[in-house]
């Protein structure tokens, strides 16, 4: 049994195919998926999906790539997170790859999410791209980690170095691998996955993006997370069952959702 720790099934191309998506999840033994918010206008839809389907959890947050969108306040995030199906704050973080110029607003928005995570005691879903130094620095400054009184979270769709992964793990974070890890070109990332203990790893699709091999280039969906799990099992030389069980247990521990 797998859990997809990060997907965007509220995006129209997936939301229109919900029955099919749930069937594919069942077929691949994917019991649950976490539908991650990217902005406030879409949040009601995300929450509605989580309320409608027992297999779907959700988060609340505003993605760092969304520039022209209502800015969340700490109070607003805390209030919107007050629902049993909202199990995380995010996705949040920094992205210096997609956007350029003065990105102080991204860092401020990231700090707002960390404050909301500390207040709600719900873990963070962190997106970081070409910004790992500032990401780790702000996580430390705002006390995101368990050692600083935070509740930690997950570094999602991880593509950074082993050093960055270890810095995050030291703060109590988990590292989540997407279909990228299955790509032939991802040798460095595969080396990172090989080094990290299975006890700190989550798996995700980030669907509709980033379909894993053998579906690369097609529209991704939560059922395909099984292929990420299978790849990690092969990479680490352990059984598929072990990866499925451990990543599922990790998800349940981090997000505080009993089986
Ligand atoms: Zn992301
Ligand atoms: Zn995402």
Annotate the secondary structure layout.
Elements: E1 2-7, H1 12-15, H2 18-27, E2 30-35, H3 43-52, E3 56-60, H4 74-80, E4 86-95, H5 104-120, E5 124-129, H6 132-141, E6 153-155, H7 162-170, E7 174-177, H8 187-195, E8 201-203, H9 225-236, H10 240-254
Parallel strand pairs: 1-2, 2-3, 3-4, 4-5, 5-6, 6-7, 7-8
One zinc ion binds at residues 6, 8, 36, 91, 206.
Shape: globular
Number of helices: 10
CATH topology: TIM Barrel
Strand order of the largest sheet: 1-2-3-4-5-6-7-8
Helix content: 25-40%
Q: Mean of residue pLDDT?
A: 97
Detailed description of the structure:
Strand 2 (30-35), helix 3 and strand 3 (56-60) form a beta-alpha-beta unit. The termini are close together. The chain has 10 helices and 8 strands. Helix 5 packs across helix 6 and helix 9 packs across helix 10 (240-254). The model has no long low-confidence stretch (mean pLDDT 97). It has helices at 12-15, 18-27, 43-52, 74-80, 104-120, 132-141, 162-170, 187-195, 225-236, 240-254; strands spanning 2-7, 30-35, 56-60, 86-95, 124-129, 153-155, 174-177, 201-203. The chain has a single domain (2-255), classed as Alpha-Beta Barrel (TIM Barrel). It is an alpha/beta fold. Strands 1-2-3-4-5-6-7-8 form an 8-stranded parallel beta sheet.
Short synopsis of the structure:
With 259 residues, the protein is α/β, with parallel strands linked by helices. The protein is 40% helix and 17% strand.
Key words describing this protein structure:
259 residues; TIM Barrel; 17% strand; Metal_Hydrolase; metal ion binding; DNase_TatD-rel_CS
């Amino acid at each position: 049994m797998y859990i997809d720790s990060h997907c965007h099934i509220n995006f129209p191309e997936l939301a229109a195919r919900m029955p099919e998506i749930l069937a594919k999840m069942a077929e691949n033994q994917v019991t649950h998926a976490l539908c991650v918010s990217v902005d406030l206008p879409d949040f009601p839809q995300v929450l509605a999906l989580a309320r409608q389907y027992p297999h779907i959890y959700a988060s609340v947050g505003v993605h760092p790539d969304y520039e022209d969108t209502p800015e969340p306040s700490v109070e607003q995030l805390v209030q919107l997170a007050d629902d049993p199906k909202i199990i995380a704050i995010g996705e949040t973080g920094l992205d210096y790859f997609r956007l350029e110029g003065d990105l102080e607003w991204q860092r401020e928005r990231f700090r707002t999410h960390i404050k909301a995570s500390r207040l709600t005691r719900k873990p963070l879903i962190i997106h970081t791209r070409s910004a790992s130094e500032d990401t780790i620095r702000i996580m430390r400054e705002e006390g995101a980690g368990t050692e600083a009184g935070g509740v930690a979270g997950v570094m999602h769709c991880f593509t950074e170095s082993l050093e960055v992964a270890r810095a995050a793990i030291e703060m109590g974070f988990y590292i989540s691998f997407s279909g990228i890890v299955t790509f032939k070109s991802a040798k460095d990332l595969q080396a990172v996955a090989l080094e990290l203990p299975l006890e700190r790893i989550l798996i995700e699709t980030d669907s509709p993006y980033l379909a894993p091999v053998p579906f690369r280039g097609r529209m991704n969906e939560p059922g395909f997370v099984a292929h990420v799990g299978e790849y990690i099992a092969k990479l680490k030389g352990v059984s598929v069952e072990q990866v499925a069980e451990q990543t599922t247990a990790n998800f349940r521990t981090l997000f505080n959702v009993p089986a």
